[in-house]
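Q: Hi! First time doing this. I have a protein sequence and I read that you can turn it into a structure. Is that right? Here it is:
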Amino acid sequence: MQIPKRAATGLVSVALVAGAMAVAPSAHAARRDAAPSAATSCYGSAHAYSKPSGSYDYPTGSAYLTTTGNCADINIKTNTNRYVKVCWLKTGNCQTDYTLTTAGQWTTLATNVLDGTDFFFWFRSDASSTGYWAA
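A: Yes, that's right. Below is the predicted 3D structure, encoded as structure tokens:
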């Protein structure tokens, strides 16, 4: 009597493993989709910018930008290749080096920036520039 019981238990185990294997690819696909949605929440909250010619900073004047909980980094997507760095409003200091951005691609300029940090962009050129930023 115990032999059929073990066989039945074995068949149930095989069925459960086979069922789990059949489900696993779709579960894995769902995890793969999670990474782009995290990026979308950051870039999905992006703001357009338009820096006028004759100015090196954006925003110009006494205006500034502030980081949010949407992104852990400060990112920019310029419409033309540009050299850009981040300056911190609190200290007035800027990053030492410019970062070359590639037209139409997101570029991370500063990483692990605290939420609520005030900053502005400083461009190497005073030519007009347009694009998006996310922080």
